[in-house]
Here is the input.
Amino acid sequence: MRRKDREVTDYHEIMAIVERCDVCKLAMVDHDFPYIVPMNFGYSTDDGLLTLYFHGANEGKKINILKENPKVCFEMDCGHQMIIGETDCSYSMDYESVIGNGMVEFITSIDDKKFALAHIIKKYSKKAGFFFDEKLLDRITIFKIVSRDFVGKRHSS
Here is the structure.
């Protein structure tokens, strides 16, 4: 990282940023060009690992790319606020972000799908205790990224 003064290295601080972010962007490799998709997500943590959970349709461009090449980069950011400078060239922006890499793993077991979906819904609803119709779980694809390779960044005035 070029700006070491903005790097967030504390694991718990990074997880607090993840909690504040609403959208995670997934960058994939689609032959000659990158492909990026903003997604809702859930997450869990364990011993320095960050596991991100996502769901979507069973088919489409994103799923096709991920099945061909499961290597991804992810990015999430929040806390945006403009910093007004004395001159036009001295404006800046407050923000927090997390960027990392990982491999997509498709989740196929019903219990693991329920676990992942519960984390996604809990992230946005803050409630616990979910019921999922197992017949509907076949209609969606759920995948996860387990990452040990991520970094936080923060700029605050």
About this structure: The two ends are 20 Å apart (CA to CA). Residues 110-125 form the longest helix (16 residues).
